[in-house]
Design goal:
69% of the residues lie in helices and 1% in strands. About 1% of the residues have low confidence. The radius of gyration is 21 Å and the shape is globular. It has a two-stranded parallel ribbon. It is mostly helical. The chain contains 18 helices and 2 strands. It is an enzyme of class 2 (transferase). GO terms for molecular function: glucosaminyl-phosphatidylinositol O-acyltransferase activity. It is found in: Endoplasmic reticulum membrane; Membrane.
Length: 450
């Protein structure tokens, strides 16, 4: 097989995928909640090994990796196993209600939430695992990005990345950064976006330079996910000027509704069927799906205001979790009613209304579950140090994962690797991706802010 033939085989491997069930996606992703319950049980019992690098790799990385590959058909059993181990630890050890993990400097701020460490870290981890594993035969095709309509694990991954970024960005508005003048706010947003846009440009140049395979219908000929992330700050800043008139939730619904209306009045047909004859049509998926991601980011901002809202210290009813789960239930009802009684279907390629609702409802459910776990465990401090370190250098970790994915694909023909080779290569990759931010932060206190 020549290089060109193998490139076409790689593109065919990730093309025309139809996805799987929403329930299976939830089952796989909620294994991370079971992992956190196990870690919390170990920490509450003052078992110090729970904060070592290798222990956290086994607790957080191995289960979700197994659920995405070799144990894909038995993800529920993985979660049951983790919960069983948690119960054994809880019952066989002398628990300490004051158990804690030593906080790193940033964890001492009042805006710090340990469950966000787990939520963002696990989202990053699942995304990084999938972007390489998808190129190996041990990764089920139903988990790969859907060609046009349907739901899959990788489809919810990109949306979750955007939503979690919105949740964290809400701290700036609560801290008073939104009081900047409009011109200064725009300049600041462009400055924060510039490094990400440069990364997007470098990725485009490098992939073209080495003739790397591209799935054109994903974002277009030139667009990539870094461009989507890079343009978000400026657009969010522009939309946020309207916050005095409407909440972020209302703005998110407005952006999503307007975009969905335009899709139904001809844009959807044009995106799916029009030939690529100029720069706009060549990148139609990336350019127009951006507005769906903008809606998701605004929903994240609105949810972040709930997460960082101050409640009474003696309120033991877990008000944050209750608020998040109420929103999640409401959105799930709307989503199921919309997709179950009409011809509308989820499309990550379009980032349409059903996709936005699905991503937001899913993330609110996952975040609420982690809030309740932390509330019940009463483990104070930074949370798992591995996930904390990954969050400190989030975009750098994502960049390293992309670079390593490219190097692996250029070095070996992943499509024809055996299950054993696939598992070993992906395992080494996971260690490299997680060890990099671990060493940067825990050993040298280095944080790259992009």
């Amino acid at each position: 097989m020549t290089g060109d033939e193998y490139k076409r085989a790689q593109e065919a491997w990730v093309s025309d995928c139809t996805g799987g069930s929403t329930f299976e996606v939830i089952t796989i992703c909620f294994s991370s909640v079971a992992s956190h319950i196990l870690w919390s049980s170990l920490s509450r019992a003052n078992i110090k090994i729970s904060d070592s690098y290798w222990a956290q790799v086994l607790i957080y990385c191995l289960p979700v990796f197994a659920c995405q590959t070799l144990a894909a058909d038995y993800a529920h059993l993985v979660s049951i196993g983790l919960l069983t181990a948690s119960a054994l630890v809880y019952n066989l050890t002398s628990e300490s209600a004051s158990a804690s993990v030593s906080p790193l400097p940033e964890a001492k701020t009042s805006m710090f939430k340990s469950y966000l460490t787990v939520y963002r870290g696990c989202t990053m981890l699942m995304t990084c695992i999938a972007i390489l594993a998808v190129d190996f035969p041990i990764f089920p095709r139903r988990f790969a990005k859907v060609e046009t309509f349907g739901t899959s694990l990788m489809d919810v991954g990109v949306g979750s990345f955007v939503f979690s970024s919105g949740v964290v960005a809400s701290r700036a508005y609560l801290a008073g950064n939104s009081s900047l003048s409009k011109s200064k706010a725009l300049v600041q947003s462009f400055r924060s976006a510039l490094p990400i846009l440069v990364l997007g440009g470098l990725r485009l140049v490098l992939t073209r330079g080495v003739d790397y395979q591209t799935h054109t219908s994903e974002y277009g000929l030139h667009w990539n996910f870094f461009f989507t992330l890079g343009f978000l700050p400026a657009f969010v800043t522009l939309v946020s000027f309207l916050q005095r008139y409407a909440s972020f939730g209302v703005l998110a619904l407005t952006v999503g509704a307007l975009y969905e209306a335009v899709l139904q009045y001809g844009l959807q047909t044009w995106i799916l069927e029009a030939p690529r004859v100029d720069l706009l049509s060549a990148n139609k998926e990336g350019i127009f799906s951006f507005f769906g991601y903008l809606s998701i980011f605004l929903f994240g901002l609105d949810s972040g205001l709930v997460v960082f809202k101050k409640y009474k210290a003696d309120d033991d009813r877990c008000p944050t979790g209750r608020q998040l789960i109420k929103r999640a239930v409401g959105l799930w009802i709307v989503y199921m009613a919309w997709t179950g009684t009409t011809d509308f279907a989820v499309s990550r390629r379009l980032a349409n209304g059903p996709y936005v609702l699905w991503v937001v409802a899913f993330n609110l459910s996952l975040l609420a579950a982690l809030v309740f776990v932390d509330h019940k465990s009463q483990v104070k401090g930074q949370g798992p140090s591995l996930l904390f370190a990954m969050n400190q250098n989030g975009l750098v970790t994502f960049l390293v994962a992309n670079v390593l994915t490219g190097l692996v694909n250029l070095s070996i023909r992943t499509l024809y690797c055996s299950a054993i080779v696939s598992f070993l290569v992906c395992s080494i990759y996971i260690v490299a991706v997680t060890l990099f931010p671990w060493v940067l932060w825990t050993k040298f206190q280095i944080r790259f802010k992009l």
